[in-house]
Design goal:
binds zinc ion, 16 helices, mainly alpha, globular, 406 residues
């Protein structure tokens, strides 16, 4: 059973509770654009997993068949507990290398782009996790059953959900051992003192042992996000922006050894003579600034409605993926990537968003015939397109007229 998929309704419920709590207490930590962007990233991360899961499954099967040293019993409690502890240790190093090796940072950066900190930030995950499986391999060599490992991986990730909140204060002795909201706030900080600290997943002990722990300081309020901000609501760009800059640096870098160093050293490393496109150290950082382009109230409400329907469609695809053929599955996942991109374009107030939105709504119709979404969902999506398309066409023609008059 996919525990993450089962947990999704609880994630959304807790997000609404945190949002309501913040509004009632006058300490709302959510912005519409940032939350939509984070949840888009989470949805895309799960959706791309549907398309590439077969690849890692095949690798595991080969390893288990040829190289497994032993087969540990899958009913024994000690196997579960040791798997949980060892995985958290492996997670610490995976996470640490995700920050300290440029090639891996390009993937993990997705989790750190939000300049807010709330439960929706927890859902913000990469769609390009190409190196995570390396940290699973030892478990297969040692003979941990795949079901135990994947359950443990899911539990570890589910634990990390609740620590993404500003509303929980320090928790005393609890956070000597466990990752808490306070020490995970530090992990998301872009204040110089907080950068690259507190990598733990469930246990903060690893950070205390390996020297990467930093306490949250009252005199240094955490400013969330990246030292070189993303400044975009485009979830596709969010997944590739560091790699794009890494490619530019790679070509500009003199010498093969320097090119290799660029990939394996810290993000922003450069040979002395080179300018880096993604340098981190010494960069002036305005801790008060947040990316927040202004758009009309209509665009906000419209995007919120369309985004909600896209998330509902994504959930339907996640739930029915097993019954879809691969071609249809990859096509609908591509369509959903496009949809989240269009929602991001609306939030940025892009001129081309309107045209892309019309294309998006038209292209939705064939999927409604090919996917078995049930009568309610199908009627909802058709009704939405029937209302939205004329509205967008009118808005488009008004804009053309006003441009002609100017
Ligand atoms: Zn991180
Ligand atoms: Zn986090």
């Amino acid at each position: 059973m996919d525990l993450i998929l089962a947990a999704i309704p609880f994630f959304f419920l807790l997000i609404f509770i945190e949002l309501a709590y913040g509004v009632v207490r006058g300490k709302n930590t959510y912005r519409l654009n940032d939350s939509i962007n984070s949840i888009s990233m989470g949805s895309l991360s799960r959706l791309q997993g549907l398309v590439i899961l077969g690849f890692s499954g095949t690798i595991y099967e080969i390893i288990v068949a040829r190289y497994q040293l032993a087969q540990l019993p899958d009913q024994a409690l000690w196997v579960w507990i040791s798997c949980f502890l060892l995985y958290d240790f492996a997670y610490y190093w995976k996470h640490r290398l995700g920050h300290e090796v440029a090639l891996f940072w390009g993937s993990h950066v997705a989790h750190h782009q939000s300049e807010d900190f709330n439960l929706s930030t927890a859902l913000r995950q990469t769609s390009i996790d190409f190196y995570g499986f390396l940290f699973y391999l030892p478990f297969f060599f040692l003979g941990f059953p795949a079901e135990i490992l994947f359950t443990v991986v899911s539990l570890n990730l589910i634990y990390q959900f609740w620590v993404h909140t500003e509303h929980v204060p320090k928790l005393g002795p609890f956070e000597w051992v466990f990752v808490s909201p306070s020490n995970h706030r530090v992990h998301h900080g872009r204040n110089k003192i907080y950068v690259d600290k507190n990598y733990g997943g469930v246990f903060i002990l690893w950070d205390r042992i390996f020297g990467s722990f930093q306490e949250e300081l009252a005199e240094e309020p955490v400013a969330f996000g990246l030292r070189k901000p993303l400044n975009s609501w485009n979830p596709v760009w969010a997944n590739v922006h560091v790699y794009w800059r890494l490619i530019l640096d790679f070509y500009a870098m003199p010498g093969a050894l320097n090119k290799l160093k660029l990939l394996v050293k810290r993000p922003g490393w450069r040979a002395d003579t080179q300018q880096s496109h993604c340098k981190l150290e010494g960069m002036p950082v305005d801790l008060t600034q947040k990316f927040d382009p202004e758009i009309s109230r209509f665009s906000q409400v419209y995007t919120a409605i369309q985004f909600t329907l896209t998330v509902a469609l994504s959930l339907a695809v996640l739930l029915s993926a097993g019954s879809l053929n691969y071609l249809l599955l990859s096509t609908v996942v591509t369509y959903l990537f496009f949809s989240f991109f269009v929602h991001g374009s609306f939030l940025e107030g892009r001129e081309f968003a309107l045209t892309l939105e019309i294309v998006r709504l038209v292209f939705l119709l064939p999927f409604l015939l090919l996917l078995d979404l049930g009568p309610v969902m199908t009627a909802l999506l058709i009704g939405n397109s029937a209302l939205a398309l004329p509205l967008l066409l009118i808005a488009g023609s008004k804009r053309t007229q006003s441009l002609a008059l100017n």
